[in-house]
Amino acid sequence: MNSKRRRRLARLFALPALACAAAGALVPTVASPRKPPEPVTIEGEVTAVTRGDTLWITPAGGAAVEIRLRDIDAPEPCQAWGEESRQALAEQALHKTASARISGRDGGHRLLASVRVEGRDLGPWLVEEGDAWSIRTRWDRGPLVKQETVARAFGRGLHAAGGAVMPRDFRRTHGPCPPATPASAASR
Question: Does residue 142 have a pLDDT over 90?
Answer without folding.
Answer: no
